[in-house]
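Quarterly update, task 2.4: beta-D-glucopyranose-bound model.
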Amino acid sequence: MDGTKKDPRLVFILLAFLVATPFYAFSPSASQAVDTPPVGDLRVGDLRVEYLIDPLGIDVRIPRLSWKLYSPGRGLMQTGFRVQVTAGQAGFLDAAGLLWDTGLVRTDRSVHQEYSGPSLESRRRYYWRVKVWASDGSVSDWSPTAFWEMGLLEDDDWTAGWITTPLEVDPSVSGPASYFRRSFPLQGGVRSARLYATSRGVYELHLNGTRFGDRVLAPGFASYNRRLPYQTYDVTELLEDGENTLGAVVGDGWYRGFLGFPGDRNVFGTRLGLFLQLEVVYRDGTRTVVSSDEGWLTSNGPILSSDIYNGETYDARAEMPGWSSSGFDTSSWVPAVPAEDNTGTLVADLAPPVRRIEEIEAVRLLDAPSGGSTIVDMGRNIVGWVRLRVSGGRGVAVRLVHGEALGADGDLYTDNLRTAEQADTYILKGGGEEWFEPHFTFHGFRYVRIDGYPGQLSVADVKGVVVHSDLDETGTFETSDPDINQLQENILRSQKGNFLSIPADCPQRDERLGWTGDAQLFAPTASFNMQVAPFFSQWLRDLRADQYEDGSVPWVIPDVLTSRGSAATSGVPTAGVGGWSDAAIIIPWELYLRYGDVRVLREQYESMQAWLFYATSQAGDDLIWRPGFHFGDWAGEVDTPADLIATAYLAHSAELMSSIARVLGLGDDALEYAGLFGRVRAAFQSEFVSIFGNLSYRTQAAYALALRFDLLTDTQKVAALDGLVDDVRDNDTHLTTGFVGTPAVCPVLGGNGRADVAYDLLFQTTAPSWLFAVRSGATTMWEQWRGIEDGVFAESEMNSLNHYASGAIGEWMYSTIGGINPDPRAPGFKNVIVRPIPDPRLTYASASLETMYGTLSTNWRLDDAGMFHLDVDIPTNTTASIYLPRAQAESVRESVTSLTEAVGVRTVREVATDVVVEIGSGSYRFSHTLLREPRIERPATGFPATLAFILLALMSLAGLLIRGLLTE
Ligand code: BGC
């Protein structure tokens, strides 16, 4: 087919504009106010600001607005929009009340439209709505009104002061939670009230006797000393005329609890603190502010101690009924004292909160072999805690110890928790039914051993509370194979369990840190399963803040390892590792690809440059990075040299930087980084490719990385692909890879015509393989391929049963089985590349993704007659390039017509054995008979280099012989 043909999508977009031209000709100009009545059945909705629905308290001065178009029609693009913003809903009715009216803007942009009206002010709520025009001449009605509200933008907006308890605290152990309260009068009718709050530690808020807000573990885990997130609450409805009382409880949390290397604690400070500012606006417009200050009282209470790793001890006898109500007897409370100020570090929390997401029932009770205790099986490995019902005598202590598995003796297995106790203790107050759940900890567990329970425990007394960052679930994935479906479920569950405020490695042992490597490897999969943009963006800002001056990026973000505790004295570096620190470049790029987010590239650009500079300087003149300390192909079964991995990542990061610079319009940088990529690639070849054209280290990880990062010549690629396939076969179709190699294996096999081998690996059920854990009954992803084999635990130090890294296969499942691929030329799924590669072991697969433009879905089925049926739904205002596998254009049907007659099908071409169809939005059904031969696309070989090398070698040998003979 014609390789020089214009990109068909360009033709399509041009056509869309031509269709819309008559409409433009009669449209008022952008500056004029137009209020065209709706035409057709076009709708606009799901209005978001900075990815969020109606956010409160944001501090982005130029927020980005996004919306979705809905229309059943085919091939529909947005051709224009009009956004209106007011500072009060009534403003829409009256032109004078509008703060910003874009008029008709002719563009197909419907995501990340930057606000560019008058400067936004602290505290103000801005209402907005949008109307859109589409390429078929239809016009939507105004969207429902949405809003965003600004937080406190200026330093002097803060009048609150930090307070803490004057009570003695022993910094070497988990301390009691501090309770704070203050009563204050209000009169005159409250029109609105906002509470801005944060803490040193983790907090819960109370108002007039009840806990409010559904956040848990706020303010989350962040690089507190540099960026401390505050949360904004609308408390209008909770306040009353007369006396009101605000209360807060603060526990150790990540701030001063155990964190990092075993035994380390007080990473951010030794004293808890509270900072809040309540701003009340009365009906007459006057205002009053109640802030944390020395007017607050404090006391210890029933939470005797709490710790993220170790759990919580709660003594219900010490409860203080009514402690957050007015009129409570405060005689035993003491005035709070001021604590060091650091308002300069306050930032608005822009990520979805951590919440109690779900409550699950226990499934069975087992008698612990040790006697006296009961083990509760929750049926699956979850992250959160237990809500327990108990009745018994005052002072009876019930202890709940959480673990992920049972040992060979049938007792709770806790060796893999290392020093983390994961134990909550509840001391009963007595006198009836009591319910306990902890406040300031979380556990990774499937089993709970309950010691000291008074009376007969029943399944109904134990609820599992599932806790994680409340990110929207955006993906679905299902196939005809139950094991693969279970794998998908396990990946998602491990994502949920570990996306708790930060992307963490594990949720159970004394670690739970934001390991950069794990995060970057899993980010593509994560973004299929959930809307991760604000979550990762917030974490990336911490990465930037914690980055060293020389550009090196810490192993974990927030950086709790460097220069603190044991790391400071051990001399072990805790930053700058290839494949890990590259998260600085890879994750922003993924957010760009998947959400069309250019701003994150711009914001992180300097950080990325600094990292690349650091990595390049570590590699030195020969551009081979021989890192001092490294993780290699972590948790793999075969070692791959660290210098190969680090150099491969250096090349990859350089190449990504070149693309990123291009997106940002920085041509010189793009050239420079492309040059760097070329040089590192060449260095890689001369260092790691033998004269016979094959890699000198023949491991699956080495092959997979070299191929995935495009580090080889065409000839070398052929050898590497063969080498990879041979190695897989030599290992009886098993993986030998670890965290770094694993995500690359199936994509390079599938992308080079060997999806059959990739599927073989996916369907493998003995270790090492993904389905080994599934077949072993795992309900989450394991850190080690052989986490538990024949009842034997792999090891105790590093054997998390809830570790998402190997779940990075999810990306391949969505993209190759489901067929959903982002298009770097039209990021954010403005164009999607739908390219499923079916396998006879599956009779159907379906996948969907809620993109920034709407729901994208694919669904294919292989019927008994060898026909392949593919249904796709393409969101309005987007296009799709559909690759129909092993097809002939003439024999493909769309619904009941041929491709040439199908409405919405723009162009058709053939690429190898695929038929590529460019379509616009709408629902389509393609059917064709699969050609017998699967597509095997081998990279072009060019001159047979291996042969050349052999000849060369023979010639030199002959030369030597002749010289030898002559000199004799
Ligand atoms: C973590 C990993 C991390 C690794 C570094 C481990 O302790 O759990 O997920 O990437 O350290 O090799």
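Highlight for this quarter: Residues 1-33, 940-946 have pLDDT under 50 and may be disordered.
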